[in-house]
Amino acid sequence: MNEFLHQLVAGLATGGIYASVALALVMIYQATHHINFAQGEMAMFSTFLAWALMQAGLPYWGAFALTVVISFVLAAVIEFVVIRPMHEAPELSVVVVFIGLLVIFHSLAGWLFGYTIKQFPSPFPSNAWYGSELMSAHQVGAILVALVMVALLFSFFSFTSIGLALRAAAQNAPSSRLVGINVGRMLMLGWGLAGAIGSVAGMMVAPVVFLDPNMMTGVLIYAFAGALIGGIDNPVGAVLGGFIVGVLENLIGTYVVGTELKLSVALVLIVGVLIVRPSGLLGRKIVTRV
């Protein structure tokens, strides 16, 4: 029983990381209605930036805050320079652009920082009072970080005029323009928020899996599964889906298929959700009148 509880809470901790990346995926999907396949590599690159800042002498939280700001600006610039000109392009062309961004960030990280595995510090002390035998302090912290980001985003989208404008621009750009909303700026803001969220997720992942250019590959697949399960157009649903995937991956991988086939759990979940309930648990069903 203790082993089962340990695997359950470890799955929740892992799910907190998946939830953070799923949240970033949903942010960009809401803005562009496309899946950013480079989201994991952008988060990885941001984590390398944080590592470089700490190597230069900045304390952890100073490097953390500066990395979030840089990631926000970098993602917003990518939207303006790369994604916006593709607005009227075919779907396949946009997918190719996202794959190109994935390759660019992966190669750039390897070129600038090397392919050797590096240690990345955790902001949560290993002997903190909230750690336990079932869940380490970093695992508890990763869950809290994911929940805090959800709360902040919910407040931003529900109680601020900019958040409401961003929701309107994502859901109906033509009508938003008619009421005076600058849709272009809102899309840049959406990308910037996704970049910032991804950077936080990367800095939560790195202490667990170590820092190298390949660290986010599997995480992105699990996060994508979580976003689909919860609803690719629903931030709260994506976070819920991330936790669900984390728990299922840990339990099924440990007791059913083994650790070697854990990644197949995410792939099965993706296919199953697309077949049974494409809109996800909390996603909106879109009905078109003909």
TrEMBL record:
<keyword id="KW-1133">Transmembrane helix</keyword>
<feature type="transmembrane region" description="Helical">
    <location>
        <begin position="215"/>
        <end position="232"/>
    </location>
</feature>
<keyword id="KW-1003">Cell membrane</keyword>
<feature type="transmembrane region" description="Helical">
    <location>
        <begin position="263"/>
        <end position="283"/>
    </location>
</feature>
<dbReference type="InterPro" id="IPR052157">
    <property type="entry name" value="BCAA_transport_permease"/>
</dbReference>
<keyword id="KW-0813">Transport</keyword>
<keyword id="KW-0029">Amino-acid transport</keyword>
<keyword id="KW-0472">Membrane</keyword>
<dbReference type="GO" id="GO:0005886">
    <property type="term" value="C:plasma membrane"/>
</dbReference>
<keyword id="KW-0812">Transmembrane</keyword>
<feature type="transmembrane region" description="Helical">
    <location>
        <begin position="239"/>
        <end position="257"/>
    </location>
</feature>
<comment type="similarity">
    <text>Belongs to the binding-protein-dependent transport system permease family. LivHM subfamily.</text>
</comment>
<feature type="transmembrane region" description="Helical">
    <location>
        <begin position="6"/>
        <end position="28"/>
    </location>
</feature>
<dbReference type="InterPro" id="IPR001851">
    <property type="entry name" value="ABC_transp_permease"/>
</dbReference>
<dbReference type="GO" id="GO:0022857">
    <property type="term" value="F:transmembrane transporter activity"/>
</dbReference>
<feature type="transmembrane region" description="Helical">
    <location>
        <begin position="187"/>
        <end position="209"/>
    </location>
</feature>
<feature type="transmembrane region" description="Helical">
    <location>
        <begin position="94"/>
        <end position="117"/>
    </location>
</feature>
<feature type="transmembrane region" description="Helical">
    <location>
        <begin position="137"/>
        <end position="166"/>
    </location>
</feature>
<dbReference type="GO" id="GO:0006865">
    <property type="term" value="P:amino acid transport"/>
</dbReference>
<protein>
    <submittedName>
        <fullName>Inner-membrane translocator</fullName>
    </submittedName>
</protein>
<dbReference type="Pfam" id="PF02653">
    <property type="entry name" value="BPD_transp_2"/>
</dbReference>
<feature type="transmembrane region" description="Helical">
    <location>
        <begin position="60"/>
        <end position="82"/>
    </location>
</feature>
